[in-house]
Amino acid sequence: MNIQAGNRQGTIQPRSELEKSVDRGFILLTRIFALAVAGILLWIAIQVAIQALPAIQKFGASFLVKSAWNPVNNDYGVIPQVYGTLVSAFIGLLIAVPIGIGTAVLLSENLLPSSARTVLVFLVELLAAIPSVVYGIWGIFVLVPILTGIGKWLNAYFGWLPIFSTPPTGPGMFPAGVILAIMTLPIITAISRDALISVPPSLRQAAMGLGATRWETILKVIIPAAFSGIVSAVMLGLGRAMGETMAVTMIIGNANVINASIFAPANTISSLLANQFAEANGLQVSALMYAALVLFVLTLIVNILAELIVLRVKRL
């Protein structure tokens, strides 16, 4: 009687061969999908590199340090576009990161009523659903005039600083950075919120049990515990900012020059590709592919740095 009761309560029935085969098949299928993703990435890189090969052979590493872009003379360099890509993305993150993390804390720590949190989550998700061309149109007719007025004031009183030295005339690096901040905000907020929610409740309870206030718990316990997830969110936002095309193309000014002032017109690699690829031919196509390969490598470096930072934080 006792043996029968034990069998009913604690004995684990052996798995059938069919169940084992299904598990093995599922594992094999997921490995195939993972390898397929890596294969697609490698295939894209190889195809872009093959198309860029004539420009690589002609210009070599000088392509990365020259500022000329002259299809008539077949003279190409991408340093202004690299500069514009990195600086506009940095401006976007400088604005989006504190707002995104603050919003994530607000949504994850029950600092708002339930109904208000639901509305705020919906609005953040709605930002991600707006097409980039709509952001560009809104930037031209609404954002640029506002930022031009702000820029003129900054230039009048702080024009001695290099970043404010050029008076704004309309499109430029600063409006592009603000647009990128708005477009990356949903990514940073959503992933940071997930990272904060995943922190074990025992950490909150232990900190408060030791006498920490709610904000001390958030700033000194919760955010450090979720730091790896927050870094991943920021790096994904950086990747989105570096690759954004249409909205940035519409408001950055598309000037192939390097200017220390954030109010001056600039250009990015994505904008260069969008503006010139349709009418390009001959060596210009290869030069554009070379520029695309540079952007590919930059985003790859960003992701590698993100992984290294996350692994370093996990070891601490």
UniProtKB/TrEMBL annotation:
Residues 82-306 form the ABC transmembrane type-1 domain. SUPFAM superfamilies: MetI-like (SSF161098). It is found in: Cell membrane. The keyword tRNA processing does not apply. Its main location: membrane. The keyword Cell membrane applies. Gene3D superfamilies: MetI-like. Keywords: Cell membrane, Membrane, Phosphate transport, Transmembrane, Transmembrane helix, Transport. It is a multi-pass membrane protein. Pfam families: BPD_transp_1. The chain crosses the membrane at residues 25-46, 82-107, 119-147, 174-196, 217-238, 287-311. It comes from the Bacteria. Part of the binding-protein-dependent transport system for phosphate; probably responsible for the translocation of the substrate across the membrane. Belongs to the binding-protein-dependent transport system permease family. CysTW subfamily. This is Phosphate transport system permease protein. The gene is pstC.
